[in-house]
Amino acid sequence: MSGGGEERRGDEETGRPAVGRTGDGAKGRRGDRRASPRARWLAPADKVAIGYLVIITALTLVFSYRIEVWPRLCAAHAIGIGFVVWISWLDKTSRIAAASRSLPLARSPRLPFISFIHGWYPVALIPITFKELTYLIPRIHPRDFDSALAAIDYRVFSAHPTVWLERFTWPPLTELLQICYPTYYFLPIILGAVVWRSGNFERFRFWVFVVTMAFYLSYLGYIAVPAIGPRFLPEILEAQTEPLTGLLFFETVRDTLNRAEGLTRDCFPSGHTEITLLALYYAWRFHRRTFRFFLPLGAAIIMSTVYLRYHYVVDVVAGAVLAGAVILSARRVFVFLGGDDRVALDL
Fold first, then answer.
1. Which of 13, 35, 245, 251 could pair with 99 as two cysteines, CB 3.0-4.6 Å apart?
2. Bond preceding residue 269 cis, omega within 30 of 0
3. Please, is 333 exposed, middle or buried when counting C-beta atoms within 10 Å of its C-beta (0-12, 13-18, 19+)?
């Protein structure tokens, strides 16, 4: 993006000035910064990804006597860490080379592709690291907490919420919520793409850092409190009298999700709730038009967690609490891990 009008106009949606827009030229303290030999190497999202892989590798080694393929997993994690370090180093050295030729970063022929990979790889790494949890969680922590979570719900509501909600089940509503439920995977990507297209790459890096930290905190929660959900707990299954039915796509979407995710103990905390609330909050801060698009979809996603019998209510509460903790701590952690403090101050 070029010219000074964009910088003066700032963020049309939020009314705050833009920060760190790559390609706008030198605009003083709040404009684009050229790379220098002092440029930071690992971005905050890189450090979070490496930290998570180190934790999972350590747990794999500790419980290796129950994990038959632990050497392969450790090797895969080492390769993953090596990739993170390599792509980060490649991005940094390319920026330094562009600066030495006095080229704006956006005009370096090598930078767009490398920066794109460096910026987006954490999003691609998230589902890869999720898939291994199906195998790892029962071996690291082989006790399910479904009965305890269901007991908390029952103590609060004097009923199992999924059973109580049977009186409100309606095939068109079930169809709609089942279609909305998996869209939570796309909310972080959509908001990231909106911010990326705006040219505010420092803000984009902050959002990727938030998403990476949020997902990996929820993954550690799955390991600490394994649970498969009320749709599998025998005492709730026996109490359910009305099966969920949709119209056209309900069974197809549900079966596709079951095959894609497998039987993963991923209920507590509710990642759907956590990520959806974070996407709503930061869409409000970054781009109000995207927020208005997200709001009804986000409400449907959170409602669907219990209605569709994927989660206990306590899972949803824990996901909301975790989202709040991420929002409250994200700026400080981002700066602590080497992120641009000017981006943090803009939030």
1. 35
2. yes
3. middle
